[in-house]
Predict the 3D structure of the following.
Amino acid sequence: MIERPETAVPSIARNLEGYVGFANLPNQVYRKSVKRGFEFTLMVVGESGLGKSTLINSLFLTDLYSKDYPGPSQRIKKTVQVEQSKVLIKEGGVQLTLTIVDTPGFGDAVDNSNCWQPVINYIDSKCEDFLNAESRVNRRLMPDNRVHCCLYFIAPSGHGLKPLDIEFMKRLHDKVNVIPLIAKADTLTPEECQLFKKQIMKEIQEHKIKIYEFPDTEDDEDSKLIRRIKEKMPLAVVGSNVVIEVNGRKVRGRQYPWGVAEVENGEHCDFTVLRNMLIRTHMQDLKDVTNNVHYENYRSKKLAAVTCNGVDSSKARGTLTKSPLAQMEEERREHVMKMKKMETEMEQVFDMKVKEKKQKLKDSEAELERRHEQMKKNLDAQYKELDEKRRVYEDEKVNWEAQQRILEQQKLDASKTMEKNKKKGKIF
Amino acid sequence: MATTEIDIFANEEKRSLELAGHVGFDSLPDQLVSKAVSQGFCFNILCVGETGIGKSTLINTLFNTTFESDEASHYLQDVHLRPKTYDLQESNVNLKLTIVDTVGFGDQINKEESYKPIVDYIDTQFENFLQEEMKIKRSLHNYHDSRIHICLYFIAPTGHSLKSLDLVTMKKLDSKVNIIPVIAKADTISKSELHKFKIKIMSELVSNGVQIYQFPTEDEAVTEINSTMNAHLPFAVIGSVEQVKVGNKMVRARLYPWGSVQVENESHCDFVKLREMLLRVNIEDLREQTHARHYELYRRCKLEEMGFKDTDPDSQPFSLQQTYETKRKEFLVELQRKEEEMRQMFVNKVKETEAELKEKERELHERFEQLKRMHHDEKRNLEEKRRELEEEMNSFNRRKVAAETLMGQALQSCSQQPFKKDKDKKK
C-alpha cells in the first residue's frame, strides 16, 4: 500500500503572509500529464465463455473485441497463450493508450497444471523490460508496459472457488494487482450472490490471497464509499454489447423473456462499481501500487539474486539496503582487510622461522668457534710438550756430549800417560 | 518516479477507437494530481551571490515570510553551503521548500576555488539520489528529493558587465543546474543603464557559452508568457519585507528620501515577473528539467565512469542482470588476482630468504672444513716434529749406548792391563 511520506528531513513550518503563487503547482502538473498522455495495461483471465470480451467492451464503451478482432474465447489454441492488443482512446482531451492482455485457452484444457505459468512469464518479462530500460546508461522515454491490473473471472457456480481459481490467485497476488470478479452474475439471484460472495471472501482469506485493496483516505466521504465497495467484493458483473430500450430509456442490457438485466443498474449488478473504481477513481492508484510495490518486489528479488551469488543467506539479510555496487565495494573492503590480516600473519610466521634459522646458524657458528679454540689449545699444549721434551733432550745431549768430550779428553790424556808410562815401564 | 510516457514504439499496432459514451478516464489527470497533492511537493532553491547582495531578503520577499538567517560575515575562509528546509502551505498545496545559501561567496582574496563547494553540493545531492535509485530495496516514492531545482545567480548591480567570478561560476554550474541570473539591488540602476546592462550581460553569457534556463515554450498554455519573459532576462529585482504606506495601501517597498521603490510595481523592478515565472508558471518544469536533463547527465557520466555500458562488443543490449553479473565476475576475478599476487610475492620472499640462509650455511660449512684441514695439517706437522725428535733421540741413545759400550770395553781392557803388570813383577 502507498505509505504516507515520512518527514525524514527536519523542517520548519511557516505561514505565508500573502500571495506567493505555488498553489498553481497542481495545475502545472495537470497540464503536463495531459500533454504526456496516459497508459494502462489491463489483463483479463478466466475460462472461455465467461463474458470477458463483452465486459471489456462494456467497460470502455467501445468495440475493442469485434468480428475483426475476436475475443480470447474465439482464439483458443492448443496451449495457453498470452496476447495483447493496444488501443488508443481519447476523452475530454485526455489520451489513454490502453493495452488489453488476454489469455486464450486458460483453464480450458483437460489438464490445466501450470496454465498460470505463461501468465507469470508475461508479467515478469514486462517487469524485466522496464528494469532493463530503467537501468540503462542512456535512458530515454520509458514506456510503461507493466501489467497494472488483472481481472480474474470466477464462474458463477454459486458454491465457492475452484482449485484452479485458488491456485492462480495464490501465484499471482504478489506479482500484480488481482481483482476477482463474479462473471455472468445475471445467473445468480441476489441472495445466492450474497452467499457466493461471502464464501469466496472466506476462501480468499483462508488461503491468504492478497487481492487489490483500496487505500485508506483521509476524506470521510471517500472512506464511507470505500467501505461500501469493500463490502461488495468480489464484484458481480454483467456485460453487454447490446443497447435495449426500457421504459423509453436506452440502456445496455441483456434481454430475457422475463425482463431485462441492466448492466448499469446498481441493483442488478456491480458493473458500475467496477467501472467507477477501475477507471474513474483508482486507475492511478493501480498504477502506483504496481510501480511501488509489485515492481519493486520483482526488482529487489532480481538484484538480490545477482548480488548474493555465492554469499550465504545469513549475510544476505543485511545487504538489501545497498545497491549491488555498494555491496561489491563493501566486499572489496572486507577482502582487503582479510588480506591484510593474512599478510601480517604470514609475515609473523615467516619472521619467526627466519629468526629460528638464524639462531641455529649462530649456535653452529659458536660451536664451531669453540671447538676450533679447543683444538688449537690442544695442539698448542702438545707443541709445548714437544718443545719441552726437545729441550730436555737437547740439554741431555749437550750434557752428555760435554761429558763425552771430557771423557775423551781424559781417555786421550790417559792414553798419553800410558804411552808415557809404557815407555817409562820398560826402563825398569 | 513512475513515468507515464506515451509508447513510442511505432511498429506496435495501435488502433484508435471511438467511444460510444462517457467512460470516465478523463479523470485520470485529476487522480494523478490529487495523489501528488496529498503527497506534497518539494522544491529546492540555491542562491549564489556575494555576501550582502540581498539573497536572503529576496527569498523572504518571494515567499512572503521571514526565514530566519544569521547575517553572514565577510571573513570566512571559504565558501559554505547552508541548506534550510521549511514547510509552506498555500491553499491546499504543501510545499517542502529547501533554501541553500552560499555563505562567504566572493569574500576571499583568491576566488579560484569558490565554485567548488557549490558544484560539490549539487553533485552530492545527485549522488544521494543515484544511490537510492540503485539500492536493492529502495523507496523512491518516499524519498525526499534534495536535488537543486533552480539556482538564482545574483549579479552585482555595477551597471557595466559581469564579473569574471560570475562567468567562471556560471560556466561551471550551467550543465548541472537550471540557472536564472538576477540583477540584485536593482534600485541602484536607472532605467536606461539597466537596459544596457541587461543587453551586455546576455551577450556576455552567450559569447561565453553559458547556458541559462530558458522558460519552456512548447506548451501552448504558457508559450506566450514564457517567450515574453525570456526576453526580459536577467530579471532586475529588489527585495523588501518592510511595509510602506503608498496612497492608502500598505505595500512592500524601500523608502528613500526621493521616493519609495515598490517591490510589486512592475515599472519599478522585475520582481513580479520573477515570482510569476519561478513559482506560478514553471515550478513543475524546473523540477522536470532537473530530473530529466541534469540528473540524467550526472548519472550517465557516473555510470560510464564505473564501467557500465549499454551494449556489449557485439552491439547486443545488455540486460541489467548481465551487466551486474559481468561486473561481479570481473570483481571476483580481480580479488582473486590480488590474493594470488600477494601469495606469489610471499613465496618469492620466502625463496629469497631461504637462499640467503642456505648460502650462509654453506659458508659456515666451508669454514668448518677449512679449519678442519688446518687442524689436520697442524697435527701432521706436530707428528713430523715428534717423529724427528724421536729419531734424534733414538740415534742419540744409540750413540750413548755405543759410547758406553766402548767405554765399558776400554775400561775392561784398562783394568786388565794393570793386573798383568803386577803379575809380571812377582815372578
Notes: The longest strand of chain B covers residues 80-90. The radius of gyration of chain B is 52 Å. Residues 15 and 399 of chain B are 148 Å apart (CA to CA).
